[in-house]
Amino acid sequence: MTEIVHVSAPELVTYADELAGLLAETVDEGSSVGFLAPLDRETAAAWWRERAADLEAGRVGIWIAREGGRVSGTIALVRAPLPNARHRAEVAKLMVRPSARGQGLGGALLSAVEAYAATEGITLLILDTESGSLAEQVYCKAGWTKVGSVPGYAADPAGSLKPTTFYYKELTAP
After folding, report:
1. In this predicted model, what pLDDT tens digit does every residue of 7-49 receive, in sequence order?
2. Where are the domains of the chain?
3. Among 11, 35, 70, 173, who pairs with 7 as Cys (CB 3.0-4.6 Å)?
4. Please, are residues 123 and 88 in contact by the beta-carbon 8 Å criterion?
5. 60-67 β-sheet, strand order
6. Whole-angstrom Cα distance, residue 26 to residue 35?
7. Are strands 88-96 and 145-155 parallel, antiparallel or unpaired?
8. Euclidean distance between CA atoms 89 and 150, whole angstroms
């Protein structure tokens, strides 16, 4: 059974090595999540440990999915920092282990973030993803609205510039 947990800063540090493995695996298999390949595990682990300060400050929320005691996925919610944007947040770093894909885990992580955001008074979520990626199917199935795409927006793990598609979802308070 899969368990989705909203982690604290100390918990994030505890999971940093496992999350580093997930991040490196995701990058190495070609998914665009902000890093170039090859991504060594120590760099990935350091990146996750650095997010603990963001968690402590309330700038970000991070959820992990665990199955059989192992991290199988993650997602983040990044709050907008400016006063005129406190109603919105960005969904980022949705990653599911290749061995756990196709079982609805990406959608479950997304639902957890959406539910939390609504309870926090966030009424607008945004995200971006590589155009044509499998993640687009997850977002469309979850009712996100496609805004459009920008050519050459971000480099894929191999360093080639790829188009990025932007999405949004409006939320209502529970």
Report:
1. 999 999 999 999 999 999 999 999 999 999 999 999 999 999 9
2. 2-170
3. 11
4. yes
5. 2-7, 60-67, 70-79, 88-96, 124-130, 161-170, 145-155
6. 10
7. unpaired
8. 20
Q: Of 161, 131, 126, 134, which Cα lies nearest the Cα of 36?
A: 161
Do 133 and 93 touch, CB atoms closer than 8 A?
Answer: no
Rounded-to-integer distance, Cα 86 and Cα 120, Å: 10
Using an 8 Å Cβ cutoff, are 135 and 129 in contact? yes
Multiple choice CATH, 2-170, 3.30.43.10, 3.40.630.30, 3.20.20.70, 1.10.10.10: 3.40.630.30
pTM of this prediction exceeds 0.90: yes
Do β-strands 88-96 and 2-7 pair in parallel, antiparallel, or remain unpaired? Answer: unpaired
CA 20 to chain centre: 14
Share of the chain above pLDDT 70, in %: 100
Give the pair of three-digit tokens for residue 106. Answer: 């990406």
CB 105 within 8 Å of CB 94: no
